[in-house]
Amino acid sequence: MMAKTDFIEALRWRGMLQDSTPGVAEHLQKGPASGYIGFDPTADSLHVGHLVQVMTLTHFQRCGHRPIALVGGATGMVGDPSGKRTERNLLDEDALRHNQECVQKQLERFLDFSGTNAARMVNNYDWFKDMGFLRFIREVGKHITVNYMMAKDSVKSRLESGLSFTEFSYQLVQGYDFHWLNKHEGCTVQMGGSDQWGNITTGTELIRRMGGGEAYAVTTQLLTKADGTKFGKSEGGNVWLDAARTSPYKFYQFWLNTADADAARMAAIFTPWSQAEVEALTEEHAKAPHLRQLQKELAAHITTLVHGKGELDAAIQASTILFGNAAEGLGTLSERQWLDVFDGVPQAEVARTAIEAGIPIADLLSETTGFLPSKGEARRALKENSISVNKAKVDDGRTVNASDLINGKFILLQRGKKNYFLVKAG
Prior knowledge:
Layout: H1 7-13, E1 17-20, H2 24-29, E2 34-39, H3 51-62, E3 66-71, H4 93-107, E4 120-123, H5 125-128, H6 133-139, H7 146-150, H8 153-156, H9 165-168, H10 170-185, E5 187-193, H11 197-209, E6 216-220, E7 233-234, E8 237-238, H12 248-256, H13 260-270, H14 275-287, H15 293-307, H16 309-323, H17 335-341, E9 347-350, H18 352-357, E10 359-360, H19 361-368, H20 375-383, E11 387-389, E12 392-393, E13 399-400, E14 410-415, E15 419-425
Parallel strand pairs: 2-3, 2-5, 3-4, 5-6, 9-15
Antiparallel strand pairs: 1-6, 7-8, 10-13, 11-12, 11-14, 14-15
Helix pairs in contact: 10-11, 12-15, 12-16, 13-14, 13-15, 15-16, 19-20
């Protein structure tokens, strides 16, 4: 664990800090404190959109404090209206418990659950499961007025479209989480995205009204890219931490494709690197931005953290094969990696018997696969020496046969440097 440093200042230089309640910096400077962030287990995996909050806990721990990750088995049954236009579908207990177990395993890759300031994992279902409705409204609900709850942006923004009592009550439920952790775990700080400010401050107010105790709120900025678009999305939707949902290769490529305008900020947020280290890497990157060294370092760090060194090496190898000129290594890719690397590349299935019999290259390029519009076009491309089979240049006299099948299944056609076509033996 790194030496204790100022957490609020760390958030500030990393470009993460949005709001905080008065006195929180001074409180944290007194000594190790406990702070929590909640994660609703509405899926069996976190995605990169969650990583700002995961990294907030990571930075909190690295500054010498004790992080608590709350997996909301109870609040996941209610649904947080913050930032939502419509009420979401609610999951049953078994599904939430399964999701919680999956999310916990992912969080363990970021947080240290041992040592003097070991991270803690809690589930609010454990203290809500035996609390009946009447007890809740008597012991909790009486402390917060409807006027106070109605003033929250998360409520006001939904009044015209409609807000169920279930979602309206969410801020009380989350507020009670903070109260419970304050009382039983000595937790004094709740953190979250800026859209959670209303829910978090309800918690600080509830703690004050239910017996006092120190309680502070810290929120981080909602992350957008330099072009104004939402961070965490790819063309295919969410980029997940679960390899079954987003392959390690695609995960690596997501970070590798970070725009130059965003790379330094992403490095500050999503790595434990110091300010000096980030600034040094940024300066080196500026000398030769075409080498994308900052993006490579960022992608390597996060991919290793989430998927391990072996998957990082495989992703780098696949990238080298795809964007390089040499044929070496094509046979080392697994079938999954082939399909990952060439996802989105035009493909065609060709009968294995036809390949074994041999197909003239001009026919394969045109009539058999449709990669090129006509045999004439294919022959012109061959004459220009712009056609490759499995990364090796070929001429019009070439016949493609079973010996060209990589892993007994794939043939990679290419025109020029960037136009690929994948043939699969059926």
